[in-house]
Amino acid sequence: MSTRSFIAKQIGKDAYLTVYCHSDGYLTYNGALLLDCYNTPEQVDELLKLGDLSYLAESLHPNPDYPHSFDYGERQQGVTVAYGRDRGDKDVAARKMTMAQLDDPNNWTAYVYIFTQENKWKYFAAGHSGEGLRDVAEDLKTAYSAYGIRRPHGYYGVITDSLAEQVKAAENAEGMEMTEDTQSEFSGPVLSM
Fold first, then answer.
1. Cα 133 from chain centroid (whole Å)
2. 1, 51, 56, 118: least surrounded by Cβ within 10 Å?
3. What is the per-residue pLDDT across 26-72, written as a single tens digit (0 to 9) for each?
4. Are 17 and 46 in contact (CB under 8 A)?
């Protein structure tokens, strides 16, 4: 089962340039990736140019020396998979949507991520736009702090008790608590999951 999402950039008062993303639309994956890897207007524009996505990853550009396609055996690790570029699908370009369209329960998405005109990533769970947009960075911090840890740099995935224990063990092995300064340097065993 996939966690579907929309990824959008606000382009007007009630206008959002939007692509669909089929997999891993939850906050600690797509939300974290968008926050870390696609956090300028130029990066968001480049992402949206790919059109609808099967899978979001750290990079948009495959190495041209190796195959990269929709097929699992030919996917380059850490590279986004786009329906048009990597599978040859048609009619997958980014499209302009309104908030009502983004939040329509018939679109089968679980989350909607919006890069605002203030250059911040906000989101809402489908069907809940009326409650206002939530801040991706703040909610990620809250999600990890519930496990007593800070988000490891470069980790995109589900938070589990096992992950929390690995992060805590890495902190103890280093004899330090994860701080804002040391978080960006953390590259412990968590990343090998």
1. 16
2. 1
3. 999 999 999 999 999 999 999 999 999 999 999 999 999 998 998 87
4. no
- Burial of residue 131, with CB atoms counted within 10 A of its CB: 0-12 exposed, 13-18 middle, 19 or more buried: exposed
Residues 6 or more apart in contact with residue 133 via CB below 8 angstroms = 114, 116, 122, 123, 124
CA–CA separation, 183 and 153 (whole Å): 6
- DSSP calls for 7-40: EEEEEETTEEEEEEE-S--SIIIIIHHHHHH--S
CB neighbourhood size of 34 (10 A): 24
Q: What's the pTM?
A: 0.88
Phi, psi of 185 (to 5 degrees): -95, -10
